[in-house]
Amino acid sequence: MKSPVLPGNNLDVMDHWKNFSKGFIKENPVFVLLLGMCPTLGVTSSAINGLGMGLATTFVLLMSNIVVSLIKNLIPDKVRIPSFIVIIATFVTVVQLIMEAYVPALYESLGLFIPLIVVNCIVLGRAEAFASKNKIFSSALDGLGIGLGFCFALVLLGGIRELLGSGKIFDITVYPESYVTLLFVLAPGAFIVLGYLIAVINLINKEKGKK
Amino acid sequence: MEEDNMAKRESTFLNMFLALFAVTFIAAFTLGFVYELTKDAIDNSKIKAQNEAISKILPEFDRLGDPLKVPDESGSDTLEFFPAYKNDKFVGVAVKTFSKKGFSGFISIMAGIDNSGNFSGYQVLEHAETPGLGSKMESWFSNTEKSGQCIIGKNPGSHQFVVTKDGGDIDAITASTISSRAFLDALVKAYNVYKEKENEISGITGE
Fold this sequence. Notes:
The complex is a heterodimer.
Chain A: H1 13-21, H2 37-43, H3 47-71, H4 80-102, H5 104-110, H6 121-131, H7 136-166, E1 168-169, E2 172-173, H8 187-210
Antiparallel strand pairs in A: 1-2
Chain B: H1 2-6, H2 13-57, E1 63-64, E2 68-71, E3 78-86, E4 89-102, E5 105-114, E6 119-126, H3 137-140, H4 177-196, H5 198-202
Antiparallel strand pairs in B: 1-3, 2-3, 3-4, 4-5, 5-6
C-alpha cells in the first residue's frame, strides 16, 4: 500500500483537505485498496448494518490513529506492532461495550463483526502506514477520512443490496416485495454488487486522472 | 519527519518492556473503567428486552413468578421458564428456548404457552438467519390470517409441528425450509419440556 508521507512542517489547508478527502474516492479502502473485504461482504445485507459497522470502524480508526500518532516516539520499533494491536483492540472493546449497552438491536445484528474490527487490515494499515509517521492532526484527519470512506462504501453497498434484494432502503419500503431479486441479500449478491461498484469507482478515478 | 525519528526510543530490552507494559496497563485500566460504566446499561437493556418479549407473547398477566431453569431432553442445555399469574391464577408461561439447527446456527426464541397448553405467541430473541428469508420467522408463524403457517392457538399435541414438506401441518417460510425446521424444533423442545414438568412450572396454586 502506498501512503502519502507528507512533510511535517508546511502543511497547508489544501493538504489537510487531501488527507481527509482521499478516503472517499481516490484511496477508498474498499473500492480502491480492496481492504477489509470480510466485514464489507459480511454485514452489508442492509444499509443500516453498513452504517453501524462503518461508524464503529470510523471511531476505532480515528481514536487509534490519534493515540498511535501521539505515542509513536515512545514505542521502540521492534514492539510497535503488538503495541498498535493492543491499542486497536482496546478501542474495539470500548465500542463493543458501548454498542451493547445503548444500541442493543444494532449490536445483535452486527454480532461477530464488531470484535473482528480488531483484525480489520484497514485499521492496522493506517496505524502502521500513516499515523506512526505523521503528526496528530494529520493522523486524525486521515483516520476520519478513511473511516468515513469505508462507511460510505458500506452504506452504498448495503443500500443497493437492500434495495434490490428486499425492496426497502433503511427499512422503508420502496417497491413491493414481489418484484425483488432475493439473490442480492445473499452472499453472491455482495460479490456482484461490489464488483460493479469497483468498476464504477475505477472509471471515475480514471476520468479524473485524464484531466 | 526527521526530528520525529531522532526522538524515537531505541529497541533495548528495557525500552521494549516498559513500552509494552505501559500500553497494556493503560489498556487494561481503560477497559475496566468502560466495563464498569456500561455494565448496568447492558444488564438493563437485556432485562428490558426479555420483559418486553414476555409481555407480548402471553395472555394478560399481573405478576411474573421466579424464573425456573429446567434441563432439556439432551440434558446438556437448559430452558428457562417464566411463569405468569393473574390474580394468583396461572395464565401461562414464557419459555426461553433455542435451536442449533438454523441455517446460520443458533436461534433463541421466547415462546409463550397459555394455561391450556397452546402457544399464545413468540418472539425471536436472537438469530443470524438470512435477511429477507429466514429472518421472516419473526412474523411468519404469528400471522393469524394464514392458518397454515400460524402456530398461535396450536400445540404439538393437536397439530404435527413439522413443515408440510416433511409431512407436517405447518407451512414453512417460502424458500427457508431449514430456518422453519429450526424454529419448529425450538418450539417442540419448549413444549415437551413444559409438558413433562407442567405442575412444577405452573406451581398450580400460584406460589
